[in-house]
Each structure stands twice: as structure tokens, then as C-alpha cells.
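SAMPLE LOG
Freezer: B-3
Tube label: C17
Construct: single chain, 124 aa
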Amino acid sequence: MFYLGASKPEQAKVVVLRVPFVSPAMFEKTGQSFQRDGIWALTKGPGNGIPYKVYCVQAGRYSGLALFLAVSVLARMERFALFWLIAGVIGFVFRANIRRQPKVTVAVYACIWVVGYAWYWSAI
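STRUCTURE (predicted):
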């Protein structure tokens, strides 16, 4: 998405606008954020319900690939860290049961991710 946005920004926007729930207003909001914060705008995406791909296709105008990747790790970590922490605590607390009932463990972890994505999609 980064390369497509950097080389063919209008085509990239058209492609991303075909994704369900993505709107032109999201491009306007992220564009303003990039103007204000530069590449660090990537870190604002997880909390405001805008899909990361909207940021990715615009990032090439504000950064090279190496910096984009470095900031992306931080930006994506923000969204997933809480759920990794919850899953880790559950795994630690119930580690004895995990060995005896691996299917239940998978179901619990799946529920954590479902709740996480339900929250994310409700924020859009």
C-alpha cells in the first residue's frame, strides 16, 4: 500500500475507497493529520477508528520506506499491545488448564480478538 500510494496516489485512493466503511472523509482527516504531524500521524490511526491502509497510501509523501516501517511498528503496537497483554495474563493465570484443554484456550484467545475487532469497528 505504501508503494502504491507513493507511485500512484490517486489509484491507491480509489482502491482503498472500495474497502467497506472507508470514506473520503477519512482521507481528509488523515491528510490533515499528516500535514500537522508528519509521519507521526501514523500513530493516531489506531485510536480514531481509521483503517491503517488509509494512512499507508498517503505516507509516501511524508517519509521514506525505512522511517515508515519504523513508525509503523510503533503505531501498530499501540493497537495490539493491550490485547497481547490481556492474552498473556490469561495464559499465565490459566497455564495449567491450557495444557489440559487446548481447544478451550484457543476459543478464549479467539474471543479476545473478536472483542478487540468489535471495539475497533465500532469506533469507525
